[in-house]
Amino acid sequence: MTDDVRSPLHDEHVALGAALTSFAGWQMPLRYTSDIAEHTAVRTAAGLFDLSHMGELEVTGPQAAAALDGALVGNLSALAPGRARYTMIVAEDGGVIDDLVVYRLADERFVVVANASNVAVVRDALVDRIARFDATLDDASLRTALVAVQGPRAEAIVTSLTDEADQREAVSALKYYTATDATVAGVEALVARTGYTGEDGFELFVDADQAPALWRALLAAGEPHGLVPAGLSARDSLRLEAGMPLYGNELDRTTTPHDAGLDRVVKLDKVDDEGRPLPFVGRAALEARADAEPTRTLVGLEGLGRRAARHGYPVLASADPGAAVVGTVTSGAPSPTLGHPVAMAYVDPASAEPGTELAVDVRGRAEPVRVVALPFYRRPR
C-alpha cells in the first residue's frame, strides 16, 4: 500500500493500463505504452497529460498584486488580467525555492502554480510574505485538476469541444501565456495557452470532480488527430529537448536565477508608488549576483556518442585519462526527436562557449559531448 495522493484521474490511468509511479507524494502515470511513442506523438500530433499533482494557490484581495510583487522576483502588478508570467520565489540569499507560473485572472485575483514537490513550502512562504498586505491565500490544489493537451493538433482538439462560438474563437485567439474561461466538453475550465513540452498546447484547470469527464472527452476527440495519453517520462524528455529547467535538477536552493541563465525573470527595476526600488525577498542577494562574475554556467551538451549522460554525472575537460572535472550534468537523456543524446549541465564559465568539446563520465567511460546553445529543439512556426 502507498500513502501517495491519488489524482482525480487515477481510475482513468488504471483503465488505460498506465505504469504508475510515486512522484512528489502522488501516484502518477509514468507511461501508457512507450516513452518514445508518447514523446513522438506530442511532437507530431498531440499528447494528453494529467498534471493534477501541481499546486494551485489563489491569492486575492485589494493588495494581491502588491503582495506578490514583494513575495516573488517578478513584477506581477504589471500583468494584465488574462495573462500569465513565468517567475520564481527565492530565499533571502537568492536561492530558488521554486519556479512558478502566475496567472492574473482579475484585478484582485491571481493563481500561483507551484511544482508538486514544493506546494507546501511555497504556500507557507507566501502566507508569511503577504501577511502585511490586504490579501489572502487559498490553497486550491486538491480541489483543482489540471489537464494538458500538447502538440501541433492541440488547438484543433480543444476547440472541437468548445461549443460556444465566442468561446471557441477566444481559445483559438489565445497567445502564448494567456488564458480565458471556456466550457470544454460541458466542463467549465480556465484554458491557458501554456505548457512544458516546447510545443503549442493548452492547460485546462477544472474542478477535480469534473476531470474524468473532460479527460474522456479529450481522448475521444483527439483520437482522429493522433492524440495519445502521455506520462511523466515523455514529459521529461520533451521539456529537456526544449531546454526547460526542472526543479531539483537545474534549479534548487543553491542556485540563483542568474546561475540558470534566467536573470530575465528577476525584475530589479520594479518600483513602488513613489518611484523607489521595490523591496522583495532576495533582492539584495540578486542585485549582488547580477553584478558578479559567474562561477558556473548552465549549458546544453550534444552527445557525440550513443551513451546518454544522466543527472549527477561529472563533466570532464576532455576524453583524455585524468581530465579535470569542469562541471556536473543536471539532466540528460537520449533525444527521440534529434536522434542523439542531449543533456544540460553546469560547467565552468571557461568551458561554456558553444562548440567547446568536452566529455561526460558515463559510468567510468568518457563519452564525448559538444557544448551547444539551448534549447536543443524549437518547434516549427
TrEMBL record:
Residues annotated as binding substrate: 203
Enzyme Commission number(s) of this protein: 2.1.2.10
Chemical reaction(s) catalysed: N(6)-[(R)-S(8)-aminomethyldihydrolipoyl]-L-lysyl-[protein] + (6S)-5,6,7,8-tetrahydrofolate = N(6)-[(R)-dihydrolipoyl]-L-lysyl-[protein] + (6R)-5,10-methylene-5,6,7,8-tetrahydrofolate + NH4(+)
Enzyme class: transferase
Coiled-coil stretches: none
GO molecular function: aminomethyltransferase activity; transaminase activity
Residue ranges annotated for the GCVT N-terminal domain, each copy included: 9-270
Domain Aminomethyltransferase C-terminal: 296-377
Gene Ontology cellular-component terms listed: cytosol; glycine cleavage complex
Subunit organization: The glycine cleavage system is composed of four proteins: P, T, L and H.
Full protein name: Aminomethyltransferase
Species for this entry: Cellulomonas chitinilytica
Lineage: Bacteria, Bacillati, Actinomycetota, Actinomycetes, Micrococcales
Gene: gcvT
